Batch of 2 targets.
Target 1
Amino acid sequence: MTTAARALSTGLPAPVAASGSPGLRPAELLHRLRGRTGPGIAVSGGADSGADGSPITHVERVPAREGRRAPWPGWVPAPLREALAARGIDAPWEHQATAAERAHGGSHVVLATGTASGKSLAYQLPALSALLADPRATVLYLSPTKALAADQLRAITRLGLDGVRPATLDGDTPREEREWIRQHSRFVLTNPDMLHHSLLPGHARWGVFLRRLRYVVIDECHTYRGVFGSHVAHVLRRLRRAATRYGSRPTFVLASATSGDPADTASRLTGLPVTAVTEDASPRGAVTFALWEPPLLAPEPGPGPVRPRSAPDDATAGGPDTIATEATTSSADSEIVAVDLPPVRRSALRETADLLTEAVAAGTRTLAFVRSRRGAEVVASMARRALDEAVPGLGARVAAYRGGYLREDRRAIERALLTGELLALASTNALELGVDLVGLDAVLICGYPGTRASLWQQAGRAGRSGGEALAVLVARDDPLDTYLVHHPEALFGRPVEATVLDPTNPYVLGPQLCSAASEAPLTADDLELFGGPPAREAVAALTDAGALRHRPSGWYWTHRGRPEVDLRGTGGAPVSVVESATGRLLGTVDPGSAHLQLHTGAVYLHQGVSYLVDQLDLEDAVALVHAAEPDFSTHARDVTNLSVAEVRAYVDAGPVGLFLGEVDVTSQVVSYQRRRLRTGEVIDTRPLDLPERELRTVAVWFTISPQALAAAGVAAADVPGALHAAEHAAIGLLPLMATCDRWDIGGLSTANHADTEAPTVFVYDGHPGGAGFAERAYATAAAWLRATRAAIASCACENGCPSCVQSPKCGNGNSPLAKGAAVAVLEAVLDALPN
Ligand SMILES: [Zn+2]
Ligand SMILES: [Zn+2]
C-alpha cells in the first residue's frame, strides 16, 4: 500500500479545496510523519536520538519572537505613509526604520535579517521619499532574478504614488518600451546582467537618469558570491564610475539574507564603506525543525553493498595508473544518480516525496526544496502518483517549480498556490529568493542546501503568516549530510557563513577592466576604484597583450566590438529544450550541464513528464525532444584530464607534499549508460560524440610516496582505490570549510601522475580562475582532512557507501574504491603534515 493510501485508510481529514486550509499543527504533522516509518516518540524539546529506529535524529525548537515597532521617520512624506497604511503597514519594524534612517542620512547600509522580515520597506522608505521630494530624482534597483524584480514592481505599483513610474528592464523588455523607461521611469528595476550588457555600455543615453541617481538598491545581495559575485562587484564599480561621470553619488542600500559579516561582504561588493543592520525586530512564529535520516535498507543478498558493475569502460579500473575523476556541473542531478547507486539507505528523493504525499494528504500547505531541477520533478511526480492512487485527482494539487520554466508557467503555478488550488510544490531554490508565497505550513528540505544561510532561508519560507511551522531537513546519502544530521551543533546556534567573493580573480578582473575601458578610457584614478595593485597589474598585462592601448589620457579598448564577458560563468547561452513535433519550448538548461543532461539519447524530465532527446545541437543551443516513457534512466560518463600549470604554494612534509596551484582540466562526456528503472541494472553503454570542455582553474593537491603508503599498510593493488575513496570523501567534506558545495568542486586521483610523479589526489574549483574554494582547502588542510578521515572511519558500512566514500558524480562509476585503505592514507598524510 502506498503511503497516502495507508494514511487515508487511517482516517484523514478530507482535503480542503479552498484557500486558508489550516492543515495540521507542526507537532501533529511531525508525529504523523514519524509514525510512518516506526513507533512514534513524543515530541519534546531538545534532542531526540534516532537510536530506536526513528528517522528523526534531532528536533530543534526555534521559539517565537515578539515584534518591535518604531515610529515613522519624520522625513517620510504623508502620501507615502498613507499609501503604506492602506496596504496594512501602520508603522515600520525597528530594523526597517534604523536602516532607512541611515540611508536617508547618506550612509551606505546593508540590512541582513531573516526571510519575511520586511527588508523591502527599509529601502522603499528612503528611495520613494526621495522620489516624492524631488520630482527629478531617480532610483536603480537590482535583483538577481526577474521574478523578484517583477514582484517588487507589483509592490511599488500597488502603492499608486504619483510620478514614480516604476518599470522593470530585463532581457524581455521590447525596444520601444526600453526607450520609454529610459526617458520616463524614475524607479528602474533591473539586474546586474542588464546593467553589464545594456545600461553601462549605453551610458551616454542613460546620462540624464544617471545624473539624477539618488539610490542604488541591491536586493538579495548574498546571492552575489563566488565568480558571479566577483563580476557583479566590478559591474557595480563601473556603475559608480558612470554615475560620477554624470555628476551623482548615489547611496547604496543593500538587503541580504542573514549572513556572516554582512558589512564586510557588502563593502567588498560595492567597494564602499557599508554599515550593517542585523537585529531583526519582526515577529516570528515558532518553528519546529527536525533532522531526518532516511532508514537503512535491508541488506541485499550478494557480495557486499557494492553491486559489481560490468560496463566496458570500467575495464581499465583498478590498474596501477588508474585515474579517477569527478565531473563538475553546477546543476547536476545528484539525487537522480543516487537513486541508482547501490541502495544502502532509502533515497532522500523518495523519502521527501513520501513526506510530501503525507503532508498533502493531511491538508498541509507544503513546499519541498530539492537541489536539482530533475530532482524537483521526480519528487512532484512520485507524490502525484501516490496521491492519485489513494484519491483519484488528489495528485493534481502538487506541482514542480524551477528556474528554467517559462514566465507564464511560473506565474500560473504561483497563482494556483495562492488560491489553494495547489497544496504543495516541489521546487529548486528558484523559490529561495524573495518571491512572495504566503501561508505555507511546512517546508521539506531534500538534502543540505550547502550553507547554513541557505538552510535558514529555505526553512524561513514556512509560517510566513506568523503561525507555527514545521521544517524538516532530509539527509541525502552523502558524507556531509550524514555528518550534519548527527552533529546538530554544526547547524544550530552557530553563525552563518560569510559570503565569499574575490574581485581580484584575474579571470574576472581582466574582462571587467576591458568592459570598463570600452565604456570610457581607464584613468589612473579608475584603477584605484577597481582594486589598486591587482588592477594596475592586470592593465599592464592587457596592454602588453594588445587588448588595451595606453595614451596620455588613459587606457583605451582597442577593438571594435565589446569584450565578451560571461558574468555567471555558465559558459555561454542556455540550451533550449524544444519538443520536435510541436516546436514548443519546454525550458532551458545551462550550457555547462547540457552535455550531461541533454546529450542525444538522454531521458529529460519536465513537469514530471519524461522526454527522450532526439538530438543535441550545440551550435544552435537547441535540444530536440519527444515525449516518451522509457523503462530506463540514462547516466552520462565523463572523462577528465588534469595537468599542473603552476605551483603557487606548497608544504614539503617529507613523504607527503601539499600544494596549491593552477591546473588545466579538460573533460569530455564520452558515453552514457542506460539502466533499468526498477533494478538499476545496466542495459548498455552507448558512445557519444561531444567536444571537450577546457578549464583553467585553481587546485589543492597532496602527494604521498609509495614507500609511505606501503609503511601505512596500503597494499599496492589498493592504492588507486584508497586515493579515489579519500578524494571522494574529501570533496564531500570541503563545504564544512568553504562556502561551496560538492558540485562546485572537481577531483582527480591517480596512483602516478605525470606532473607530480607520485600518487596524488587533486581537488579543484569548478570555475575558471577559481572561486576561492581550493585556497580555503589549502589553508585549512589539516582540519579538512581530519574531518574527512573521521567521516570515513565512523561510517558503519563495510565496503564504502554514499555516506562515506561513494560519490554521486563519479566519472568512474565509483570504482575502484578501498574504504579501509583510504583511512590509512589520510592517517599517514595527517601524521606527516604540520598542524
Ligand atoms: Zn559508508
Ligand atoms: Zn570518483
Note: The radius of gyration is 27 Å.
Target 2
Amino acid sequence: MPKASKKELLRLYKDHKVQLLISKFVSGELGTLNPTFDPKHGFRYPVIDEIVGDSSMTDEFLQELFEGGVLASKLYDKIIYCPSCSSANVSIHYTCPHCKSFDVKKSALIEHIKCGYIDTEDHFQKEGKLVCPKCNKELTNPDVDYHRAGVWCTCNQCAKSFDIPVPAHFCRNCKANFTFDEALYKDVYSYSLTPQAAKEANLGYILTVPIIEFLENLGFEVESPGFLNGSSGTRHMFDLTAVSTGAKKSTTAIDIATSSDDVVSEQSVISMFAKIFDATPDLACLVAIPKMSENGRKLAALYKINLVEAKDHNAAIEALKTCVKT
Ligand SMILES: [Zn+2]
Ligand SMILES: [Zn+2]
Ligand SMILES: [Zn+2]
C-alpha cells in the first residue's frame, strides 16, 4: 500500500465525493466495492459513477483514493480488451496449433484399465453405453473399469489431433482476431476502506477535517483528537485542541456533538464540563449539530462553555468564527 502524506489524506477527506463514498462504507451500505461486468464497457463501478457524476473519471477517482491511502485494493479479475477497438466483448477461441483454425472438436480421452486401450470417448460410445473398441467389454464403473485420461482435440479443418490447443481471441464488436501477445490485458480490482481510513471515519475525524483546516488557516496548531493533561493527572481527550501560536499560547478545547434526532442532549455538556474542570483550557467550545437541548444551553452558560449550534459542519465553521479568538 502506498504511504500517503497526512496532508494528502486531509485534502481527500475534505472532498465531498470522498466523504460520500466513505459514509457508504461506514454505514454498511457498501462492504467491498466490487466491479460489475457489462460486455460493452467491461468492468465498471456504478456506485462510483454515481458519486463522481462522470463515468470517465471513475478510474482516476479510485486511483487517487488508493494512492492517498483511503482505499485498499485487491485483485478481483483480469480483463482482456480488443487491441483494435478496445471492446471488452471478447471471446476465447481454442485453435489448432497446426493450421490455426478454431474449428476444433474437444473430446475426452478414455482408458480401458483392463486392456490398456486409450481412445476418445466417441469411439467407446455404442448404443448409449461405453464399450471398449479393442476388447469389446462394456465399461460400467468409472475408476474401476476405466478412467478419463485427459482431453484430446481434433481439427475439423486439417484433421490433425493434439492435446493442447492454442488460445486466441475474437472481438465480437469489430470481429478482429488477435492473440494473447496483442491483447490488452489489465487488472481489475475490488476496493475497501483502509484500516486507517475506517478508524478515522468511525472517530468522526473525517467530518472534523473542514474544522481543522479552518482553524489551521487562522494560525492555530490543531490536534485531532487533542489531549490535555488535567491537574488530577488524567489525560483528557477532546475532538480537537487548538493552540494559538502567538506570544501567549492559549488553548482552545473543542468537542463536537451530533444528533440524528432534533436536539443534542445535555449529556455532551456535562461530560465536557468534567474534562475542562480538570484540564482548564483557556477556552472551551462545544459544537452541537443541529442544535442543543434547552437544558444543555442553560448548563453550557453555567459552565462557561461556548456553545456553537449549527445545522451542519459548514455552518459550524461560520459559527466558530465568533467563538475562537486568535
Ligand atoms: Zn475489436
Ligand atoms: Zn488444423
Ligand atoms: Zn479393452
Note: The longest strand covers residues 71-81.
